[in-house]
Amino acid sequence: MIPISKVVAGEVPEGDEVETRGWVWRTRSSGGIAFPILRDSTGVLQVTVKKGNLPDAQFDDSVKALVESSVIVKGKAHKDKRAPGGWEIQATEFKVVGFAQPFPITKDQSEEWLRENRHLWIRSRKMTAIMKVRHTVVGAIHQFFRERGYYEFDPPILQPNQCEGGSTLFEVKFYDQKTYLSQTWQLYAEAGIFALEKIYDMAPTFRAEKSKTSRHLCEFWMAEMEAAWMDLHECTEVAKEEVRFIVQKVLESNRPELELLGRDVSRLDACLKKPFPTITYTEALELIRKDGIELEWGRDLRTNEEEAIMKHFDTPVVVTHYPKAIMAFYKPVDPEAKASGPVAKCFDMLAPEGGVEIVGGSERDTSIEALRECLERDGENPENYQFYIDLRLYGSVPHSGYGLGVERVIGWICGLDNIKDAIAFPRTGTRFTP
């Protein structure tokens, strides 16, 4: 069997007999001729079926075969400028493996309806292209860290504590007790670095987000890293290198998919030719203030402010030193930073063309007293975090880490309007099917 892409790429000499297989993507017929267009995972290819060139029963089947019927075709490869991709197969055999019923997905259906029927919509060329980009992104993440001496480290999915805010925890019955789905690997990763020093993972993450925006999912994938002996600056530079590496790999492997999605690839190319800037939270407020946007110092950046910041940049930007009061308990105060109040040794990375946050990280606080104080501030009992506090008792060292939102990176690279299209089966506050 020859993949469709090899025929379309001209890798089969004109006139040679080929055999391929796939599903009917489009079809039309008139009189004694039918023009089914097949798709497989590699592309689309026109088949010309003429009555008299094959048994009558097979010709009749080629006319009856509706969209998404599965078929095996033999015939000769020929150039045809009118055909998708410029090639076609002139069929000598047309075998229907499975006749399809009338396919329910047609043009002009709502995004929500398509998500309700995602098990079928995933066959679309759009979703196929996105999943191929996703494949490249995930592979690039593994390659990036493994080439740099990081060990893959698998955290538990069931965890007893919150790490990113108790209001977004998913509670799970665990026999006669309760536990929670993981918000992040971080607390366990901080244990792992004392053995392996540099570690990373790719794992599902769960947050009971109340937001119903195009940027949020309840179940998503995070690529996280943690490293001993690493400070904030070193951590932000690793994040920049990783994002640059991912973009480079997608441009090497997926330009046809990006073109199919209508992505302006020149904007991604430009990202590889420039450094990614680093600014502070305070500098970010000053930047958008010039545009007439006022945000009180100490308030977190919202979508509007992030979008405003990124109108000034055409590459990803790292924003550091957010106010400590709005940060998670494990992010330490930077005593050397000059700002209107205490700021944390932390950062976010914002993507251009919308300002969505794609990476978040920090140094980790090594002070037991500070950790206890912040946990109590957040209404948490420090005794429930004893295993985490223990890490500071036995040879603690400076360390840092971050998490990269896989779907958000895919959404930015592909130019998607909604993060829900960056994953095969999205889970949100209103959807857990199909």
Itemize the secondary structure elements and their pairings:
Layout: H1 4-8, E1 17-26, E2 29-30, E3 33-34, E4 37-40, E5 43-50, H2 56-64, E6 70-79, E7 87-98, H3 111-116, H4 118-121, H5 125-147, E8 151-152, E9 158-159, E10 171-174, E11 177-181, H6 186-196, E12 198-206, E13 219-228, H7 232-253, H8 255-260, H9 265-271, E14 278-280, H10 281-289, H11 303-310, E15 317-320, E16 346-350, E17 357-363, H12 368-377, H13 386-390, E18 399-405, H14 406-414
Helix pairs in contact: 5-7, 5-14, 7-9
Describe the structure.
This protein is an alpha+beta fold and 434 residues long. The chain folds into two domains: 4-98, OB fold (Dihydrolipoamide Acetyltransferase, E2P) (Beta Barrel), CATH 2.40.50.140; 115-422, BirA Bifunctional Protein, domain 2 (2-Layer Sandwich). It is built from 14 helices and 18 strands. It has helices spanning 4-8, 56-64, 111-116, 118-121, 125-147, 186-196, 232-253, 255-260, 265-271, 281-289, 303-310, 368-377, 386-390, 406-414, and strands at 17-26, 29-30, 33-34, 37-40, 43-50, 70-79, 87-98, 151-152, 158-159, 171-174, 177-181, 198-206, 219-228, 278-280, 317-320, 346-350, 357-363, 399-405. The strands form three sheets. Strands 8-12-13-18-17-16-15-14 form an eight-stranded mixed β-sheet. Strands 1-4-5-7-6 form a five-stranded mixed barrel. A hairpin with a 2-residue loop joins strand 2 (29-30) and strand 3. Helix 5 packs across helix 7 (232-253) and helix 5 crosses helix 14 (406-414). It is elongated. The model has no long low-confidence stretch (mean pLDDT 94).
